[in-house]
Structures
1.
Amino acid sequence: MGMRTVVEKQANEKRTGDMSGTPDLTREPPREEPARQYYFIEKCRQYISEESDRLGHPLTAAVITFGCQMNARDSEKLSGILAQAGYVLTDSEEADFVIYNTCTVRDNANQRVYGRLGFVNSMKKKNPHKRVALCGCMMQEPSVIEKIKTSYRFVDLIFGTHNLFKFAELLCTMYEGDRMVIDIWKDTDQIVEALPATRKYPFKSGINIMFGCDNFCSYCIVPYVRGRERSRRPEDILGEIRSLAAQGVVEVMLLGQNVNSYGRNLERPMSFARLLREVEQIDGIERIRFMTSHPKDLSDELIAVMASSDKICRHLHLPLQSGSTRILQAMNRRYTKEQYLALAEKIRSRIPDISLTTDIIVGFPGETMADVEETIDVVKRVKFDNAFTFLYSRRTGTPAAAMENQVPRKEAQAGFDRLLSCVQETAREQVARLSGQTQDALVEEINPHDPSLLTGRLSNNTIVHFPGDPALIGRIVPVALLENHGFYFIGRMAK
Ligand code: 5AD
Ligand code: SF4
């Protein structure tokens, strides 16, 4: 099965460094990055071509992604390396090489990976040359590695979140031996630029602006598995976006665990708002999105930049987590219910057409129904346009996991159900406000359920389906929002 992907051209010429053209494999691998990885990509090409000759068909590879937008972007980087090394990319687990890019933010993400491993093991028994790799957040947990070493011995390669840039080198090691290759780094400051990537959509792309997180919310495992916060240099980010724009990208999504603290640790510090202003100057980029914001760091400067911008989308994802000040304190979120409400009000008053979305956790240790009522109160007052609600998941190693007052599942579920119906009601009301308006939509794809329709996204992230020519995919067109279907619209292109 084929997969529609676009291979990105490199943002800058860094890769040339001491090497122009094809790396010379008769010499030692270069020490500096990314030249070293280009050397190993070339070496992989040989191994892959030999194996494909032996098997009599081109080798296929699939990257299966769990979790957030960061992981999705990491998977594009893995796919970019696989494509350059000579694999044909597919999205089927039937592939000759399957890589699971894992998530561990909640336990159900881990369980899904173990489920997939059981399935892929049965395929590998029928097809012994098949290879399997695991990477991503879950692999940063020592207990997971132990479990895989004892119960999933067929896995060929395991690496983590800090050494993803070494993927080509690890692939070579995998080809050169027949034992399980495990390479996990605890943490690193290193950011390697200018490696290949592929993109799922030709017209939009995620861009990492920072890695890691220093906030240590007490329930969250991310700071432990993604390491300390580090920002990419603005010139690298802007260079990458310019090069994407030159390749036809019109929408960029700036990615970080806490974009509002971007740039604080740079040699020459720079605010996120300032970075946005610079991205806005880039010709060809028509829409700018970003994820995720932490309420404690969201500045007036950012609100002002958003309010005055034509390109920054009318959407802000602002995780609330809880509406109870007591629980927020135990979560180490560093804002109160009142501060969150005041911030949301300020944003709505300065950017009236903005859509506000959020994340909420129910069942945090010590949470009572009265706390859930506080959260519901915030949902009703802020009127979130959408909210992702999660049952608290106990993550080993986090401070909250050691708290004694864990909430029984049944109680948490009752609070969750109450919250969910309230969230759905406000989301429906918010979407209904748009009925009858005409708004610009970026046409993203042919509607997978009804090929006579195109699917587009409004600046505020609402989805609209409407009849139109598939040649419009990647273009921004005005659409009249005719029928409200709760969470999306059916529309008609306006002249
Ligand atoms: N349990 C439940 N939800 C969690 N999140 C993060 N850690 C946990 C956890 N231990 C949620 C938060 C975060 C989103 C990405 O995942 O709401 O914003
Ligand atoms: Fe986790 Fe909090 Fe960092 Fe988000 S800000 S990744 S919830 S620790």
Note: The chain has a mean pLDDT of 94.
2.
Amino acid sequence: MANSVVISGVGLWTPKYSVSNEELVASYNAWAANYNEQHAEAIEQGDVIAKPFSSAEFIEKASGIKSRYVYAKEGILDINRMRPSIAPRQDDELSHQAEMAVEAAKKALLAANKTARDIDMVVVSCAYTQRSYPAIAIEVQAALGIEGFAFDMLVACSAATFGLQRAYDAVRSESAKAVLVINPELTSPQVNYKDRDSHFIFGDVATAIVVESEATCRSQHAFDVLGVKCVTSYSNNIRSNFGYVSFATDEAPYGVDKLFHQNGRKVFKEVCPMAAEHIEGHLASHGIEVSQLRRWWLHQANINMNLLISKRLLGRDASFDEAPIVLDEYANTASAGSIIAFAKYHEDMQANDIGVICSFGAGYSIGSLILQKR
Ligand code: CO8
């Protein structure tokens, strides 16, 4: 018989720096005014388009975001830089992303009542890794002293749920005993802080989850994984062309198309129904009604998306207690958003309560896990 799989611990590491909408908008607007002044003549002649101004009120109303945490604040608000300033590290030092991952992993291990010796598989799953190899996951494995194997995987906003699917399958099929799935989302180096439409969207964070067999679980707050479902459908509406081939194509490696860019309105319109149908279908395949859900740990990209998805399924607005929002404080943290919500809002769940973690985003990619409190 296949192993029963549980999530036994979750860890959240939050950077110490935070940037408010007001700070971000003040710096963007100063940069835009400066740009417009420098290009006044060309703008006047219609050869250059003037940079539009941003507004903190728009950001909060359109997205629900009030602030975001960042790994390095220096540089982001400097109108002569408009990108974080992160000191390079030597090859024999722990890399930035591994450091974030290790911090979250330690917290997840503690919550799961496990040590590094209990883990035999590490998955670092996120929107970007800071290098191709050696895998960040292998660096984290070494830093924590874990025996077994480790690998990186990239699935943008659904990296966490897709990583958990790998962990679920591994534990179920006994190719691993206990898995750490870590999401060190260092998004700020990929944000175009000169783009009014997207400069406010992202924040940095790291989350981690321990997945193991129920037979070995010794955690106070464990959840049975009733099911995992992943789906993808190709779309160019959220894209980053950053990659190693730029070296050969002679394109600017950090040109605007190499950074995060999107058609936000289309994403909103197309992804909301996909996510709602996905959740409904996943629950139905397990004989669970939407009304039975005690909690929804949804992807945190936009508060209006979350409200729309839950309303479509429930026929009414979900309360904060049912579908908690963290993006006011954290902004969109790519794949980590739903896991932050889970980390902050799961300890009050009662035995047999059912909840769903669901991610949706670039790819498009959608992933969900149905969890039941033990
Ligand atoms: N300040 C003031 N006005 C603004 C601003 C601003 N900052 N930005 C836009 N406006 C203006 C627009 O120009 C527009 O004006 P007009 O009506 O005159 O044309 C008006 O405000 C409305 O603009 P939009 O239609 O763009 O506004 P929306 O209401 O659609 O809100 C959002 C924009 C917030 C972007 C919204 O569309 C949204 O959230 N969509 C969903 C996007 C989403 O979920 N994307 C997922 C991306 S995350 C992901 O998949 C992970 C990728 C990997 C991580 C990347 C890390 C870097």
Note: Residues 264-285 form the longest helix (22 residues).
